[in-house]
């Protein structure tokens, strides 16, 4: 029998955690033939709720679930971890300045990065979901100098999936007909969903839509503000779709992108497309055998350039701010 893959989830007792753990345990993260062992990290106040979730996981009798450990100790939680989903983060509360938010999250992601550095398995793959995800991923990565930098990624897959869904609704296409969509930049309101290289049933998406005003005034803001629209409608945040995107992100990273398509991931920049090296920004990537590569050679028009630059500027400002706080 196969050795289980150790999957660590932080903030496991939260909303996203609740939507995520059952899908991991059922085999949707890594594959229907891959046994998993879960490690749930919570703050002390979250441990009891995590125990309750673990009771429910037991009650599912998932054939692939080989163990659940619950802890408030990051060193224990990341010990031998092959996949780490960093979901728990300090949300922005009323009146909180950006600097306060970044420093509160530095207090979470710096020690977690160090614990990953010291205790995770050699093949560790990290996905940061907790916001500000790109910069939290950068903080964790900087605290893990012995782990290859490219193992630290941030989630823009929810934005990617939202953009596909909006484009399908606009054109009447099936979501499966839409390929090569890209989210560039930060997982924030400045993100840029790019349809200029996307295809709908093999035809260029921007040409098919042929409506730059819709693109600028409807599509881009709808994708960027979808989280707020869901809070407004449901009275609660988009936890299930966020969990779904986390599953998609890791599944694609491990199992590969389909031929002729790509996905979007927040990854450390290698300087491609004028994005400063080192910041964690979303790019179009293909994946194969557990590795990803930035799609090269795309022609970036003026419309796209301005929007990519604006989002990247925000990321460099966040990086500078956490650097000033001594978190890098
Ligand atoms: P959620 O599970 O709803 O969200 C967790 C994080 O994911 C937040 O930072 C949130 O950012 C982010 N996020 C990213 N995409 C989305 C999306 N589409 N919709 C909603 N959130 C998104 O938060 P809860 O408060 O329910 O749970 C957090 C848990 O983390 C708690 O149980 C808490 O105890 C724990 N925690 C653990 C820590 C640790 O392990 N050291 C540290 C801090 C908290 P945003 O808020 O900006 O939307």
UniProtKB/TrEMBL annotation:
Catalytic residue list: 187
Enzyme Commission number(s) from the entry: 1.1.1.37
Residues bound to substrate: 92, 98, 131, 162
Reactions that this protein is recorded to catalyse: (S)-malate + NAD(+) = oxaloacetate + NADH + H(+)
Domain Lactate/malate dehydrogenase N-terminal: 6-145
PANTHER family the record matches: MALATE DEHYDROGENASE (PTHR23382)
Function summary: Catalyzes the reversible oxidation of malate to oxaloacetate.
Name of the featured protein: Malate dehydrogenase
């Amino acid at each position: 029998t196969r050795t289980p893959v150790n999957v660590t989830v932080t903030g496991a007792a939260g909303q996203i955690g609740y939507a995520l753990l059952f899908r991991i345990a059922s085999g949707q993260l890594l594959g229907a033939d891959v046994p998993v062992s879960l490690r749930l990290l919570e703050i002390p106040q979250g441990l009891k709720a995590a125990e309750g979730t673990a009771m429910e996981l037991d009650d599912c009798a998932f054939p692939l679930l080989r163990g659940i450990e619950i802890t408030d100790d990051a060193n224990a939680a990341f010990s031998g971890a092959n996949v780490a989903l960093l979901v728990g983060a300090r949300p922005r509360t009323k009146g909180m300045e950006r600097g306060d938010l970044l420093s509160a999250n530095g207090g979470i992601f710096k020690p977690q990065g160090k614990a990953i550095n010291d205790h995770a398995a050699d093949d560790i793959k990290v996905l940061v979901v907790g916001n500000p995800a790109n910069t939290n991923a950068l903080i964790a990565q900087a605290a893990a100098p012995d782990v290859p930098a490219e193992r630290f990624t941030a989630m823009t897959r929810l934005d990617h999936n939202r953009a596909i869904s909006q484009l399908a609704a606009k054109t009447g296409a099936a979501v499966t007909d839409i390929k090569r969509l890209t989210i560039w930049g930060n997982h924030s309101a400045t993100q840029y969903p790019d349809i200029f290289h996307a295809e709908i049933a093999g035809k260029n998406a921007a040409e098919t839509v042929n409506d730059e005003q819709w693109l600028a005034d409807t599509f881009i803001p709808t994708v960027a503000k979808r989280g707020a629209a869901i809070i407004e409608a449901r009275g609660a945040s988009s936890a299930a779709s966020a969990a779904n995107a986390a599953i998609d992100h890791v599944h694609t990273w491990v199992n590969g992108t389909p031929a002729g398509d790509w996905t979007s991931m927040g990854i450390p920049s290698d300087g491609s497309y004028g994005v400063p090296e080192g910041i964690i920004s979303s790019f179009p990537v293909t994946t194969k055998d557990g590795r990803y590569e930035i799609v090269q050679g795309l022609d970036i028009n003026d419309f796209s350039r301005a929007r990519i630059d604006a989002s990247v500027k925000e990321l460099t400002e966040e990086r500078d701010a956490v650097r000033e706080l001594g978190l890098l």
